[in-house]
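Recap from last week: sequence in, structure out.
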Amino acid sequence: MAGSETPIDAPTSPGRISRLIAHPAIRVAAPLVIVAITFYVLHELSSKVSWRAVKADVADSSPTAIALAIAATAVSFFALSLYDVLAVRSLAKGQVPDRIAAYAGGTGTAISNLLGFSYLTGTAVRYRIYASLGVDLARVAGIIAISWIAFWLGLTLIMGVLLLAHPVGLSQVLPLDGTLETIVGAALLGGLVVLLIWLSRSPRSLLAEGFRVPLPGGRLAISLMVVAVFDLMGAAMTLYFLLPADLADNFVYFFVIFMGATALGILSHSPGGLGVFEATLIAGLGAAGRPDMLAALLLYRVIYSVLPFAVAVMALALTWAVTQRGAIAKSSNWAYRLVRPLVPLAASGVALLAGSILLISGNLPGESARFGVLRDIIPLPFVEVSHLAGSVAGLLLIVIARGLYRKLHRAWLIAMGLMIVGFVTSLAKGLDWEEAVGMLISLAVLGAFRSAFYRVEAASVFRLNGTWLVSILALLVAIFWIGLFAYSHVQYRDALWWQFAFDSDASRFLRASVVVALVLLGITLNSLLNRRGAVSGPHDIPDVVRELIAQSEDTEAQLDLLGDKTFLISEDNRAFIAYCDTGGSLITKGEPVGDEVAGRKLIWQLREMADKAGKRCAFYAVSPKYLATYLDLGLSILKIGEVARVNLQGFTLDGSNKKKFRGARSRAERDGYEFAIIPKAELSPILGELRGISDRWMKEKQGEEKGFSLGYFDDTYLSNFDHAVLRHVETGRIVAFANLFQGANKHELSLDLMRYDPEGPKIAMDALFAELMLWGAEQGFHWFSLGAAPFSGIENHQLSSLWNRIGGFIYEHGEQVYHFEGLRSFKQKFDPDWTPNYLASPGGLAAPRILYEVNVLVSGGIKGLVG
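Predicted structure tokens:
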């Protein structure tokens, strides 16, 4: 931070700690360390337990306990749905009906609980749902914030009551004496009361990292707190009802351990906290070596994670199938708009669950009786191959979940094929008919969602980012541990690898684990070595594009002759739009060129192309001309500055503001310099001299050539334009030049490259600029475009949007990085007309990404951007 005087060897500050925690290596290493430690602990704690004993305890579980656990789960999910209902009533009343908010909260949480990936949690789910229903980013952020506030209010209330009452068992977890427990509990409850009174007095908000988050009022806070208590108690009671009787004699102690296990599970990035949650509970409750504890945890996973997920997915599949019948227009069908954001997440979860089932099944011993039937039907080599194929199919289904999340059609096709493989191998490797039925159900669900997967992308569907790799690795470690646990009674020896028999389950487990590990290693290397998405290269400039540019009155269209863009041309050749493909986005520079009606269709066509490719679509530096169309596309409109245009009718250099330019022009004349226009047909002989000037100018500026929205020195590009030059009368030496953009019908004049020789007169640039504007006025041009002033004209008001406040702040305080205000002041000297300049892009967090990609395009890559 500017102005900081903290010495290098000073103690670590909170800011430095937060930066350290945010480092990518820490974000990857921390979950892996947690996973490694907890699985080691889990292995040690359960090393004396047999899989057969766990299965027996599951079979002997009390139906009453299971029914109570299901009821507690229902209470928890009902409370989870009420979070959203109450938050929406507070921040988006009238925009989202209660039933939709409840459906979004309950269904979204059921899906995200199973997935467990950091970007597929309830936050991402809620954002997708509410944004699809027209709720803006600020309100969605507020809804999510209120949900988190509710969680902490409820937890604070519970902990305050527990500490104040200091029941037996609490001191075993928290090493506090009775007096201190009472003091801390009273402080928590007293603070809660003070907070509620403060919230009741007037509307409150919290400013955090530039975001102003509205806080709930007193009444709402109390309601949320009560709901949170039901949520937390319901989740904890689900497992508590399933625990062995001797471990369930102190609910207070259990509850504190349960909350700690939940927190560690979240930090691990393992889907659903698998393994980490279990290890923490076994250690905390002192249940090492107990099969009945593992049985309770297994049932808890099925009841609290798998069962709500299955209900949510079946409800989604049914709703999706109904909305696809076409009886009701999708645009007005609230059910369609609600389930649409959830379908990719649900399909991703289905693939993840199906893949996990195949892998877990492959790691567990088969039923002897079923193998006896197989001996008479299927040869042993077929069983061995089926076992390997089923495990590999399971891994690939987990990996392909990311492609389903991104709505890729190829991912859907591959997932369907893998589930068919899973169905066949489930029967062939051990007559696992339960597993085969699960594959058929998964196949039916994915089949119902078919229309949701329409995107086509050149990149491999097996390429993963860092977060997915960490999450999948954590999940596979958990599944591998299940295999180790199941065969803990088998003494390891080298001969196990080469035993091929119907009853050699341990051998098949070892071989399958190695194959799965090798396949995952290959996927990881492919993901790390091929990180960049597919980028379509620029095309040659078609003749129709040149004709349309020549007919355009807007001089900005002539930047499309750079040759760094791809062209989308209307069928009737009446308009085109130029764009760049960054790999993740299709971004235009400016708006369509040509007929307005055809241009509007091209905007839609580009948006559809981007959506089908699974990419973002944005329109950079556009005028108000097509704003209605961009809004119809569902894009957000962000003002990024203003464009200055000078009226050349009757233009002179009179006035105090232009004194500098009059002086430069007079000085150039006295020193023997003249202004001249070199037609493009006569440019070739002087291109070498112009390149020398450009190279010396670039060297002094210590920069790189730009692109996309700025021209660069290229012989082919510059040969398209007439050039204005300032040269010495006697020697003919050119000291400054500019290529001219001349709009059709002499509507507008502008320039692109304007460079001078650093060894020439210092007034060369100002003199050339003054002469050029006077020449344009003499030639009858109506306007002279001075180009854009970034962030100019953005209203920085406390009631403005977040983007406006950020843009206004940069404009006011960013002079050390870029002369924003100075640039506008320079252009203001000519008394121009200012018109707004916009970015039309997806809203939310996509806008900063688009702006980053634009800067990379302009700077010619990451190296140029950093430079």
